[in-house]
Amino acid sequence: MPRIPIIMPQLGESIAEATVVRLLVQVGDQVTADQDLIEVETNKATMAVASPCPGRVQALAVNLEESYPVGAVLGYVEATAADAARLGLD
Q: Are strands 73-78 and 55-60 parallel, antiparallel or unpaired?
């Protein structure tokens, strides 16, 4: 099954990184598309990073209270081949 990366999104025009403050899921959890997975904080707000697709959380590559730049891979969701193709990641 394809591994779809969970990417730190661009959270604001001038935001270059965010700090992980809470994990909302665990490795092995089934998730839906757009389900909140990780809560991150910038100097302006707290926001959630959502799942790019439905599937199972295969890995979380973050530590609490550590900062990660925009575009960093925060973990992976194991998706079906159909979902990966729909996202253009096949």
A: antiparallel
